[in-house]
Amino acid sequence: MMWLLPFLLYLSVAVFVAGMGWRLFTWLRAPVPLKIVLTPGPATTGGVASRLAGEVVLFRSLFGADRALWCAAWLFHISLVLLAVGHLGGLVVPGFARAVLGLTEAQFHHFADLTGGAFGVLAMVTLLYLLLRRLTMERVRYISTFSDYLALALLMLILVTGNQMRFMGGLEMADARQFVSGLLTFQPMEPPPSPAFQVHLLLVCALLVYIPFSKLMHLGGLVFSPTLNQRNNPRERRYA
Q: CA 119, CA 121: separation in Å to the nearest integer?
């Protein structure tokens, strides 16, 4: 296990980066022969950037279509982002994070436990809502496929193992930081003995490999949507 887990982590990151790059490059090269911008659309490049920012950050279109789904989806995504930032600050650059927050090490750990626990629970609750919605709404269940449930299952298991370590203990943060530091410096070492930690990382590996080949590619594909990234200037620029 000493070398297997680091090897799988390196491999999954390589597949993720290569897969994302390939998918985005393919979309970038795809011809767009027609103006299919959603109207009313922005006529300037700045307006397009603002529109895309609204979709990426605020899920503007979803807000207008389904407020309940928007609330659950937005809270889930913002929870994941904040959990990722927390992992970065707690495991990769803890000293920098403490300095930015102006906290002592004890205060930083207490703050991390509170915020990480809150966002971990919030992400789990909103994910359960999204799963129940897919199971109980006939029109949503009809169009759901195995890949939809697989993505939800991977995310849920990652959150379950993460919340288990946070609320039930069994993992020394110093060991986790040392393991992460070894990975980042390409000097891998034996992972912490916590089974939940090892399962958590294996699930993350599976998710990273799965993302480029699944609907989860919307995290990078949204900005390539012709209906959102085009200017509303059909008179000024005609398409042959």
A: 5
* Per-residue confidence (pLDDT) for residue 108, from 0 to 100: 80
- Give CA–CA dist 228/203, Å, rounded: 33
Spatial distance between the Cα atoms of 55 and 232, rounded to a whole number of angstroms: 17
Task: Please report the sign of the dihedral spanned by the C-alpha atoms of residue 175, residue 176, residue 177, residue 181.
Answer: positive
CA-CA distance, 227 to 41, in Å (whole number)? 9
Q: How far apart are CA 139 and CA 237, in angstroms?
A: 40
Can you give the pLDDT at residue 2?
A: 66
Burial class for 87, CB neighbours closer than 10 Å (0-12, 13-18, 19+): middle
Could you state, in chain order, the average pLDDT of each consecutive group of 10 residues for the chain (240 residues)?
84 96 89 76 86 90 91 95 91 82 81 89 96 94 93 96 89 89 91 92 96 87 81 68
